[in-house]
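User: Reviewer 2 asked us to show a designed sequence for the structure in our supplementary figure. I'm pasting the structure tokens here. Could you produce the per-position amino acids so we can include them in the response letter?
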């Protein structure tokens, strides 16, 4: 488990591209038959990737979280960004198709990840996990792709027409902190989350997926008056501190998993910034 300590906006002006990427870009989450993890001290969120290829992969207990088992004091949202797979939680198997979501509540002990057809056209399952501390237990719940609360946002005229699926949220699958969903850009739309915004009460992480290998997303971050950018490839994640805007534009169509944790679970609790206000 890699650890990344929290940063403040005062740090950003002095960072070059390499440091920005070291602190806020998460690469290499999905390694065959392994589980990789990054612990960010922004709201103590853990980002994990699991890619079962030759057989099931068990979720380990990382010494950095000082627990008997991973979910002893935590909860998580899981989205499958690969081929069909299965997450088995304490003996109960949940089948996740591409872009489906599973919430796992506090107290789950044995969690394993498996692929249904790792050599098929879609390849092995690739499970993206976002975990936060939890004060109580809510039931493990599966939401099929597209079956959450669907919101149509944006406009084709501004190249940001998108479908947003809310899976784990205050009026959907219950959780302590984690809020999670998937957004898919419509054909011809490339901008996500425009106008950009902050929510100083929650951190957020994006995982970009379904992006062609030759394409990239230019992800904007930083304070509105001092923006920076990260050039992001397929199945790479960005860490967005509560003080940072988050928005991006791709060179091809894509989807992304968004996940938040922090002070509240109100999706619309955000402070927007018009592009004319940004520098």
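Assistant: Here is a per-position design you can include in the supplement:
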């Amino acid at each position: 488990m890699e650890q990344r300590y929290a940063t403040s906006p005062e740090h950003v002006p002095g960072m070059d591209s390499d440091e920005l990427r070291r602190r806020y870009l998460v690469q290499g989450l999905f390694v065959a038959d392994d589980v990789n993890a990054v612990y960010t001290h922004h709201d103590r969120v853990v980002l994990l990737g699991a890619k079962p290829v030759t057989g099931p992969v068990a979720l380990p207990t990382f010494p950095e979280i000082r627990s008997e088992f991973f979910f002893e004091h935590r909860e998580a949202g899981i989205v499958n960004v690969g081929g069909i797979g299965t997450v088995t939680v304490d003996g109960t198997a949940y089948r996740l198709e591409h872009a489906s979501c599973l919430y796992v509540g506090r107290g789950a002990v044995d969690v394993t990840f498996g692929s249904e057809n790792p050599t098929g056209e879609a390849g092995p399952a690739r499970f993206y996990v976002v975990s936060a501390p939890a004060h109580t237990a809510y039931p493990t719940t599966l939401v099929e792709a597209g079956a959450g609360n669907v919101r149509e946002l944006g406009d084709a005229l501004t190249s940001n027409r998108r479908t947003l699926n809310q899976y784990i949220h205050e009026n959907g699958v219950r959780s302590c902190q984690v809020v999670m969903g998937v957004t898919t850009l419509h054909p011809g739309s490339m901008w996500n989350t425009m106008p950009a915004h902050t929510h100083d009460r929650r951190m957020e992480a994006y995982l970009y997926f379904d992006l062609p290998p030759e394409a990239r997303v230019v992800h904007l971050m930083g304070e509105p008056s001092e923006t920076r950018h990260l050039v992001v490839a397929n199945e790479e994640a960005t860490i967005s501190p509560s003080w940072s805007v988050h928005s991006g534009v791709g060179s091809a169509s894509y989807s992304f998993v968004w996940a938040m944790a922090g002070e509240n679970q109100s999706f619309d609790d955000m402070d927007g910034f018009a592009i004319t206000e940004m520098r």
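For the response letter, you might also mention the following. The chain has a mean pLDDT of 95. DSSP finds one helix and 24 strands in the chain.
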